[in-house]
Write a structure and sequence with these properties.
Distance between the termini: 30 Å
Number of strands: 8
Helix content: 40-55%
CATH class: Alpha Beta
Structural class: alpha/beta
Strand content: 5-15%
CATH topology: TIM Barrel
Strand order of the largest sheet: 1-2-3-4-5-6-7-8
Largest sheet: 8 strands, parallel, barrel
Radius of gyration: 19 Å
Number of domains: 1
Number of helices: 12
Shape: globular
CATH architecture: Alpha-Beta Barrel
Amino acid sequence: MSHLEELLTARTRPVVTAELPAVNSGGLGAVARHLETLAPHVDAINATDNPAAHAHASNVAIAIAITQLGAEPIMQIVCRDKNRIAIQADLVGAALFGVENICALTGDDVTAGDEPEARRVFDLDGPQLVRVAAGIGAGHYLSGRAIDPAPHLFVGAVENPYAPPLEYRVDRAAKKSQNGARFLQLQIGYHFDRLETFVSGCVAAGITQRTALLPTICLVKTPRALSFMDENVPGISVPTEVIGKVAEAADPKEATYQLALEQARHALSLPGVAGIHLADFRHDGSVARIVDDLGLRTQQNEEQHAHGSQLAG
């Protein structure tokens, strides 16, 4: 059982996950440099799968690298680029190297990337991919062919509480939960009321009893970054007043951090939220800072606390 699964099953403290920046070259050293700033402060780290429809080092390779370097990966898998045979091969192949945590995504359309002429696949959608991954964890391919012994997988997915049709989002989360998703990393969002409505709907539907919710907190440096997301990233909207407040601040860079801190505190205050997921575009130590400001414990500082207690004894 992965450490992430243990934590989200026990629910004894908020969990913190984060995304590893995309890697294109530099070998294991490049991955290690990113881990130096992330791993001490989070419980698990996403190995992304060609985010924003841009090609990068593969999700499987990065997930295995994270494992070999002593951290815990969450391997993202998108439906956009591969058919069901290739996706199942990736799941089973990564599991051979100890990768257990999986996060299923539909994936951004190819028009979001720098090769818009690429062919879309979408052989599976998000909820179907969750079911396929859960089936592999139960010991069988989609065809029914047995996998013995079955790899142990802890399957999750994503959901967007902020994008219309809003009334469908809880139903979609329920479908993923019923298909086997044990956690949901939520999309970036800046509407507190929409997150509240979604989380309360998930609680009322019983989803949070079996599926942990991890709202995403986005760390950016400038109001321009907020405007860019609002104007160019499908599924993300940032209220004009939020952008204006940051832009008019005496120190906009600090104001963007304080906005993220406010979002994180709000998310963690909601009954049914099991932790947060951090998307760091600042790369200035803000992951460590926000974890510290929130008073959160992660695997490393838990181990340090236990070690200190043993020394004191």
